[in-house]
Amino acid sequence: MSKSETIRAVIFKDSKMSNLDEIQKKVNNSKVTIEEKINFNKDFKKIAESLPNSDKTLYYSWNKTQPINSIQYDSPEGEIIPVSYLKAEICLEISSQQKYDKTRMNILPKDKRVDKKNITVMFLSAMGGCYCLIFTGNDTYFRRCLKLITETTKSGLEISRLDRQIFTWLFFVNDSVKRNITKLVSVADIEGFVGTLQDDDLSLSVPNLEYPNKITGNAQRLSKMFVTKAFISLGYKFTGVQIELKMKKEDKNISNANTGMKNVREVPVYDTVEVSFDEEKTIKLTNNGSNITTYYSSEGKVENAVLYIYSLLFPLIIETYNTKKDMFMNELPIYSAKLGKEVIDKIVSKNPSVALLNQNDIKKELDQNIVN
Q1: Which range marks the domain in which residue 175 is found?
Q2: Model pTM?
Q3: Start-to-end CA span in the chain (Å)
């Protein structure tokens, strides 16, 4: 199994920070180092006080910064688009759990109890602002990187959230005949959702795509699973999705091997992206999960996919959803009622001996909503 990578996105509050040259200058000239005191057991308080300050402090600082670079992509709108970005690295000192020697009499030397972790950071102008993409799923590492970036740029950072209904809309698209988001972008498969359940007596929130109780589909399309249909029909909202998208590029002419004739048939060529993402635009992907055409790129497959998703794919999906939102919201009550009826029919077919209270009235009302 390929190792997965989590990337978390924040956006600069200050519109002046949309210039990559300005960010590069601030990072390159930065003398900022964040300090954090190491917590020692109370039994070692006196020993810790005798240590040099550097031995009882964790430091977070910029490790290195690359020049502003550019990658060209076959965009999901059918054009070759250059994407500029700035890549940097933050070095975090991480205190290990083992701080004391085996006798529990002394504190270990700092190099024996503190590790260093390098975190990749990418800055990218997209979706109406400058995004900071931090390559970590660890909350502590994420907060420490945010603190260093904020202190360096003197600009606040915030999370830009998606409308939760966009996930229901993606399910709606996936459940349609053509499964097209746009003329060139389509849903190949939806493998899982994460959602929030709420009613008068229950409030359960599962916003993290790593939780094991997400709704998933393997042998059959997720749209055929009645648990997902029930979720939508009850008005609950998804907070994340695991999805595979196809971006059509061109049709290639394939010749007949026997006759040598050309133009026998045309085979569509696609770029593909397999990604999990949530309402905070946090994404999770694997090294082998996406196949994207790039030009003049010195980055790895994950970095190429990340830049493609945030600079080209997300903006297109969001723009298309916003364009179709009013129409979708008008159709949603009918669609939800249709899914609800399918759920009830499925339960009845699997449990013929079970008498449902007011079963005929419920089905009649659902039928009426669908007709109207």
Answers
A1: 165-326
A2: 0.84
A3: 48
